[in-house]
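job 3f2a | input accepted
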Amino acid sequence: MAPIISVQNLTKTYANGFEALKGITLDVEKGEILALLGPNGAGKTTLISIICGIANPSGGQVLVAGHDVVKDFRATRGMIGLVPQELTTDQFETVFNTVSFSRGLHGKKANPAHIEKVLRALSLWDKKDNMLRQLSGGMKRRVLIAKALSHEPDILFLDEPTAGVDVTLRKDMWHVVQELRASGVTIILTTHYIEEAEEIADRVGVINGGQLLLVEDKAALMAKLGRKQLILDLAEPLERLPDCFAGNGLTLEADGSRLTYDFDADNEQESIAALLTRLGENNIHFKDLSTRQSSLEDIFVALVGAGK
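job 3f2a | predicted structure (308 res):
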């Protein structure tokens, strides 16, 4: 099956010479959740803007369901819902009217039943007659999602969807995203919250300096690039490691009172058992041990650092 979004060698250079995108190539499969991670200025919003038809590329091509986003703008824009970072809404309009108006802007006939369904799914139905200025920041962000869903899009872009909302509301919105994916909507989100990608994404892309450093299945990425560590708090500090331990992944830390050991998760029991035996043979004893696995944040920081 062809990808629902296909980006080929996409570039964007502004009039001042700044290269926001440098040859991005990316395929997004129907029904998946793709998280795009990257620091400020990495190119995430520029990429989304071009796919959504808000900005024009300098080079390359973007297809949405086989339609070119430049040549077939109307066809592609009608398939896409966008939740922008900025809260750009009429503060003196009601929630229901705001979302209904957004549906009309996409050329869709009025459908109060669908608007009600969307508002109920986002826990906004009891606020339907409230003006936007009466809502909290988190509720206003939900209204942005409702607007993006008003015309029943196949693809939903979420640009920093939970920025500035509290942890409880953030987790509620993660649940909404999962339900949307279950209904067949393809979702691409940009986020600064690593736990957001870790919680809900199927694949993770890392962008830095206008370049796509990688796109990988989340579990495969963590298995490939994540590290597992054994941490040993020593009973007696060491001045230095014996020469026989050189080059086997052991590091002496915390003024000689802690050993860390990077090991292969596939041979976890064998490698740890062998290490502990060798430590005992060298009269090195520990009072406590624990293990740690790299998080997606560790991997992201390492990738972005390597890409500088």
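job 3f2a | The first strand starts at residue 5 and ends at 13.
job 3f2a | closed
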